[in-house]
Amino acid sequence: FGAISGLTRELQRVALVPPRVIVPLPALTMLLALQRAVLMKTHRTHPITIATATEVSVIAVVFLTLGWGLRVAGATAAFTSFTVGRGAANLYLMPRVRKVLRASRSDGSS
What we know:
By secondary structure, this protein is mainly alpha-helical. The chain has helices spanning 2-5, 9-21, 25-41, 46-69, 74-106. Helix 2 (9-21) runs parallel beside helix 5 (74-106) and helix 4 packs antiparallel against helix 5.
Protein backbone atom coordinates (compact mmCIF):
# COMPACT_ATOMS: atom_id res chain seq x y z
CA PHE A 1 0.00 0.00 0.00
CA GLY A 2 2.79 2.41 0.92
CA ALA A 3 4.76 1.86 -2.28
CA ILE A 4 1.70 2.44 -4.46
CA SER A 5 0.36 5.45 -2.55
CA GLY A 6 3.71 7.11 -1.97
CA LEU A 7 2.76 7.91 1.62
CA THR A 8 5.19 7.87 4.49
CA ARG A 9 4.73 5.18 7.15
CA GLU A 10 3.16 7.71 9.53
CA LEU A 11 0.64 8.88 6.91
CA GLN A 12 -0.13 5.27 6.03
CA ARG A 13 -1.10 4.60 9.64
CA VAL A 14 -3.30 7.71 9.72
CA ALA A 15 -4.91 6.83 6.38
CA LEU A 16 -5.90 3.33 7.52
CA VAL A 17 -7.84 4.43 10.61
CA PRO A 18 -10.99 5.88 8.92
CA PRO A 19 -11.76 2.77 6.83
CA ARG A 20 -11.32 0.57 9.90
CA VAL A 21 -13.64 2.75 11.97
CA ILE A 22 -16.41 2.70 9.36
CA VAL A 23 -16.42 -1.09 8.87
CA PRO A 24 -19.49 -1.71 11.11
CA LEU A 25 -21.54 1.09 9.50
CA PRO A 26 -23.22 -1.05 6.78
CA ALA A 27 -24.35 -3.63 9.35
CA LEU A 28 -25.61 -0.91 11.69
CA THR A 29 -27.48 0.70 8.79
CA MET A 30 -29.11 -2.59 7.83
CA LEU A 31 -30.15 -3.19 11.45
CA LEU A 32 -31.59 0.33 11.69
CA ALA A 33 -33.61 -0.22 8.51
CA LEU A 34 -34.98 -3.48 9.92
CA GLN A 35 -35.86 -1.84 13.24
CA ARG A 36 -37.60 1.04 11.48
CA ALA A 37 -39.55 -1.37 9.28
CA VAL A 38 -40.81 -3.32 12.30
CA LEU A 39 -41.94 -0.13 14.00
CA MET A 40 -43.54 1.31 10.85
CA LYS A 41 -45.43 -1.93 10.21
CA THR A 42 -47.01 -1.59 13.65
CA HIS A 43 -47.63 2.16 13.25
CA ARG A 44 -45.23 3.11 16.03
CA THR A 45 -43.24 5.89 14.41
CA HIS A 46 -42.51 8.16 17.37
CA PRO A 47 -39.49 6.06 18.46
CA ILE A 48 -38.08 6.43 14.94
CA THR A 49 -38.20 10.22 15.30
CA ILE A 50 -36.47 10.06 18.68
CA ALA A 51 -33.84 7.66 17.33
CA THR A 52 -33.11 9.97 14.40
CA ALA A 53 -32.77 12.97 16.71
CA THR A 54 -30.51 10.90 18.97
CA GLU A 55 -28.35 9.86 16.03
CA VAL A 56 -27.92 13.42 14.77
CA SER A 57 -27.18 14.74 18.26
CA VAL A 58 -24.62 12.04 18.98
CA ILE A 59 -22.93 12.63 15.61
CA ALA A 60 -22.64 16.34 16.37
CA VAL A 61 -21.33 15.89 19.91
CA VAL A 62 -18.83 13.16 18.99
CA PHE A 63 -17.59 15.08 15.95
CA LEU A 64 -17.09 18.29 17.91
CA THR A 65 -15.40 16.41 20.74
CA LEU A 66 -13.07 14.47 18.47
CA GLY A 67 -12.43 17.15 15.87
CA TRP A 68 -12.05 20.27 17.95
CA GLY A 69 -11.60 18.94 21.46
CA LEU A 70 -9.16 16.09 20.86
CA ARG A 71 -7.79 17.28 17.49
CA VAL A 72 -8.47 13.96 15.76
CA ALA A 73 -8.06 14.05 11.96
CA GLY A 74 -11.18 15.11 10.02
CA ALA A 75 -12.01 11.83 8.28
CA THR A 76 -11.39 9.82 11.42
CA ALA A 77 -13.56 12.16 13.50
CA ALA A 78 -16.33 12.12 10.89
CA PHE A 79 -16.38 8.36 10.36
CA THR A 80 -16.22 7.68 14.09
CA SER A 81 -19.07 10.13 14.65
CA PHE A 82 -21.27 8.48 12.02
CA THR A 83 -20.59 5.01 13.39
CA VAL A 84 -21.22 5.99 17.02
CA GLY A 85 -24.35 7.95 16.07
CA ARG A 86 -25.79 5.05 14.12
CA GLY A 87 -25.01 2.71 17.00
CA ALA A 88 -26.81 5.05 19.41
CA ALA A 89 -29.93 5.02 17.22
CA ASN A 90 -29.82 1.21 17.10
CA LEU A 91 -29.45 0.97 20.86
CA TYR A 92 -32.37 3.33 21.41
CA LEU A 93 -34.66 1.33 19.12
CA MET A 94 -33.63 -2.12 20.32
CA PRO A 95 -35.90 -2.40 23.40
CA ARG A 96 -38.82 -0.80 21.55
CA VAL A 97 -38.56 -3.25 18.65
CA ARG A 98 -38.17 -6.16 21.07
CA LYS A 99 -41.37 -5.09 22.83
CA VAL A 100 -43.28 -4.92 19.53
CA LEU A 101 -42.00 -8.34 18.46
CA ARG A 102 -42.94 -9.92 21.79
CA ALA A 103 -46.42 -8.42 21.58
CA SER A 104 -46.91 -9.72 18.05
CA ARG A 105 -45.87 -13.24 19.12
CA SER A 106 -48.22 -13.27 22.09
CA ASP A 107 -51.27 -12.20 20.09
CA GLY A 108 -50.41 -14.36 17.07
CA SER A 109 -50.24 -11.48 14.58
CA SER A 110 -47.47 -10.94 12.08
